[in-house]
Automatic annotation (TrEMBL):
Protein name: Cation transporter
Keyword Signal: no
Subcellular location: Membrane
Pfam family, one: Cation_efflux
SUPFAM superfamilies noted in UniProt: Cation efflux protein transmembrane domain-like (SSF161111)
Protein's organism: Sphingopyxis lindanitolerans
Membrane topology: Multi-pass membrane protein
GO annotation, cellular component aspect: plasma membrane
Domain of life: Bacteria
Presence of keyword Membrane: yes
Domain Cation efflux protein transmembrane: 24-202
GO MF terms held by the record: zinc ion transmembrane transporter activity
Annotated InterPro entries: Cation_efflux_TM, Cation_efflux_TMD_sf, CDF/SLC30A
Length: 212
């Protein structure tokens, strides 16, 4: 109960705080730029883990744009936006999982050096964004979804770098595919987490309206 009360206060304060919107704009720009870098590098290096991480950057850019659009709206609308973002996270996770399975049968060994360099750059970008968003992690479902995306991204970048080491050491593509599958699991788990909080916010709003 105490956590729920704190979450509500944090969300209300952040929504009226221009620093919250400024952080979202920075996150949006960083993620859009990293999508362009990673998708090009992923295709050039034939790395499904990098391609998956690039699509994650693209999805996060859309999520930040949605968050900026609903930041001043009522909590019910913010919760509905979070439901949409949860659906995109789940769809991304399922797509990456299918891509990893396909790559197991048809893929080749990617370029480990490119994976490592781009993965390190993406990690720096995501850690910076995650640190900026850390203070807002206990807000409403919409704000929590932003934090979950950033947290998962940083974890995913570490996994990409580990995959690069695995590809370099073995000369095979399975570490790249394994990381892609792990990233799919993170996206699915994060989507379910955001979905649960969004439904809770909607239920709380509905109960309040009924009581009024």
């Amino acid at each position: 109960m105490a956590d729920q009360c704190c979450a509500g206060k944090s969300g209300k304060t952040a929504l009226n705080d221009p620093r919250w919107r400024r952080v979202l704009w920075i996150a949006l720009i960083v993620n859009a730029a990293m999508f362009a870098v990673e998708i090009a590098a992923g295709v050039a290096a034939d790395s499904r883990a990098l391609q998956a991480d690039a699509l994650d950057f693209l999805g996060d850019s859309a999520n930040y744009a949605i968050s900026l659009g609903v930041a001043g709206m009522a909590i019910a609308w913010r919760a509905r936006a979070a439901l949409l973002k949860a659906a995109t996270m789940l769809a991304f996770g399922l797509w990456v999982l299918a891509s990893a399975v396909w790559g197991f049968f048809a893929g080749s060994a990617p370029e480990a050096e490119t994976m490592g360099i781009i993965g390190a750059a993406a990690l720096v970008a995501n850690v910076v964004v995650a640190l900026m968003l850390y203070r807002y992690r206990t807000g409403d479902a919409n704000m929590r979804s932003v934090w979950v995306c950033s947290r998962n991204d940083a974890i995913g970048n570490l996994a990409v770098m580990a995959a690069a080491l695995g590809v370099f050491g073995t000369g095979q593509g399975w570490p790249d595919l394994l990381v892609a599958a792990i990233m799919a699991g993170l996206a699915i788990w994060g989507g379910l987490d955001v979905l649960r909080h969004a439904r809770s916010d909607l239920a709380t709003t509905a109960a309040g309206e009924a009581a009024a």
